[in-house]
Specification:
- The chain is mainly alpha-helical and 124 residues long.
- The chain has 2 domains: 8-67, 434 Repressor (Amino-terminal Domain), CATH 1.10.260; 72-124, no CATH class.
- Helix content is 50%, strand content 3%.
- The chain has a two-stranded antiparallel sheet with strand order 1-2.
């Protein structure tokens, strides 16, 4: 987050994740509902000014959200950590993980591995 360009998808993503209406997001950013809708729909370009405000709000929102999460770790953690990889769901147990390999679709649990393996065998 932050370095990549702000896109209409990213605006919608933040809004959906927080359950904010376009009006609510507009209030937080000092603009109108219809302006938000136009940016999301691509009928207006995303300005530099908007980008700065949006990135600040996004950062603050995700930092706040991180404070209330329960994190299980198999490794010692420092006092502060920034997670750069996107968490994904194990396709068997549906729990969230940051997988060691980007292409993993299943967690390291033995039962999940077995189920996943059986599924991919069936598919052939
Ligand atoms: Zn699993």
């Amino acid at each position: 987050m932050g370095r990549q360009a702000v896109t209409s998808t990213r605006i919608k993503q933040l809004r959906d994740a927080q359950g904010w209406s376009a009006y609510e997001l507009g209030c937080k950013l000092g603009c109108t509902r219809s302006y938000i809708k136009s940016l999301e729909g691509g009928s207006l370009p995303i300005t530099h000014r908007f980008t700065l405000r949006f990135v600040a709000l996004e950062r603050q929102t995700y930092a706040q959200a991180a404070r209330h999460k329960q994190i299980c770790t198999r490794h010692p953690l420092p006092r502060q950590i920034t997670i750069l990889a996107r968490p994904r769901k194990c396709c068997v147990c549906k729990a969230w993980f940051i997988f060691p390999n980007t292409h993993d679709r299943v967690c390291t649990d033995r039962q999940c591995r077995r189920t996943y393996h059986a599924r991919t065998q069936e598919a052939r």
